[in-house]
Amino acid sequence: MPKISDQAHCQTVLTTFEMTPGTCYDLLEELKDAYAEFISRQPGFIGAGLHVNDAQTRIANYSQWERREDFLAMLRTPEMRERNRRIAALCKSFEPVMYDVAKVF
């Protein structure tokens, strides 16, 4: 489970997916399956959360990894590359961005 802390020494990744309401739940199922079957079992994975906006046009994903290299290694696996092709077919765009937690209130 992710824990947001400015004292943590981990890599935070925020990914925003943009889609139509018609593909929102197909994409959500694809993402849930990716986490359950693959991503959560990768070295360095700490936790993640998936969030859907009320218009069903965006999914926000928050994930934490022990190290930046762990996240990048997961992305480069043949399985995740194949999954990302299926994910890309269900949405207009998606972009993972790495962040450091600056402050928590």
UniProtKB/TrEMBL annotation:
Sorted UniProt keywords? Monooxygenase, Oxidoreductase
Q: What's its top-level EC category?
A: oxidoreductase
Q: Which residues form the ABM domain?
A: 11-105
PROSITE patterns in UniProt: ABM
Q: What is this protein called?
A: Antibiotic biosynthesis monooxygenase family protein
Q: What is its EC number?
A: 1.14.-.-
- Coiled coil (residue ranges): none
Q: GO molecular function, one example?
A: monooxygenase activity
